[in-house]
Structures are given as C-alpha cells and as structure tokens.
Amino acid sequence: MIHIHPYQSADETPLLTIFRKNVPAAFGESEVADYADFLRVNPDPYFVAEHNGQLVGACGCGVKEDGITGRIAWIFTDPDFAGMGVGSALVRHCLAQLRENPAVILIECRTSQVAYRFFEQLGFVLQRTEPDFWVPGLDLYFMTLKP
C-alpha cells in the first residue's frame, strides 16, 4: 500500500538517492543540484510516497502568483517500483489539493517526452514542446488540465 505524507527535511537524502536513479533517463545530471535547492527553499506543498516504510517517490504542487493557475512540480518515482501506481497516487493527491482552491481554473505541468504520456492518461493535454529544454535530449512538454 502507498502512503503519502508531507515532505520533511529527513526525506531529503533518500529523495536525492531516488532522483539520481532517474538520471539520465528522465532528468539531466545538472538537475540534481536544482532539485536539492528546491527541497531546501520550496514554500509550496510537497509530498512523499512510501511503500512499506520505504520512500518511493515525490510530487509537489502549488498556485502560481496569478492566483488562478495551479502547477505540478518535481514529480518522480523510484524506477524499482515502476508500475505500482506510485506516480498516479502522487499526482492525484496533488490534484486533490489544487482542486480544493476554488480560484484555480487551470493546472499546468512541465514534463518531458519521457513522462508526457503518463500525464495524458491523467487528463492533461499537450500544449507545446520545446527541444532540448531541460538538457540536451530532454524536451519540454508543456501540458495543462482544467480542474
């Protein structure tokens, strides 16, 4: 069973270990430091998934400064637990958080060609792509969802 709880500073090291397992398939090496910085300064809700007491993924969400656009941020799962529904559980948890805010009229997600089909299955619609956005070989797939 997957248990989701808010991020705590003690989760940083295990999450960085899992994040590195996703380099270079889903993230660039340069993004490891970006993610570590995010964990230290992020003011928005960020959630961690556990399976049998082991951290297996994370996902964040928040509302942009415009007050009406939600966003999904820094989602990833441990590749050793692929196909167990961890990513879906995390995104659904974040979507539920965003849907609690009646001002949110659109939810954005910036992902890559590696994961955009996953987001399509959750109802997100591809708006545009940009080659080599994240790192060479990993393109931006900008997607939206109406809550």
Write a structural description.
With 147 residues, this protein is an alpha+beta fold. It has one domain: 3-Layer(aba) Sandwich (Aminopeptidase). The chain contains 4 helices and 7 strands, in the order E-H-H-E-E-E-H-E-H-E-E. The protein has helices spanning 12-21, 31-41, 86-99, 116-121; strands spanning 2-6, 46-51, 54-63, 69-77, 106-111, 125-135, 138-145. The longest helix has 14 residues, at 86-99.
Notable features of this structure?
globular, alpha+beta, Aminopeptidase, 7-stranded mixed β-sheet, 147 residues
SSE succession: EHHEEEHEHEE
- The CATH architecture comes to 3-Layer(aba) Sandwich
Helix content: 25-40%
Report the uncertain regions: none
Strand content: 35-45%
* Strand order, sheet with most strands: 1-2-3-4-5-7-6
Identify the CATH homologous superfamily: Gcn5-related N-acetyltransferase (GNAT)
Q: How many E-type strands?
A: 7
CATH class: Alpha Beta
- What is the radius of gyration computed over CA atoms, rounded to a whole number of angstroms? 14 Å
* Quaternary assembly: single chain
Structural class estimated from helices and strands: alpha+beta
First-to-last CA distance: 27 Å
Largest sheet: 7 strands, mixed
Shape: globular
* Average pLDDT metric: 96
As for the CATH topology, it is Aminopeptidase
Q: Given the structure, what is the number of helices?
A: 4
Return the domain count: 1
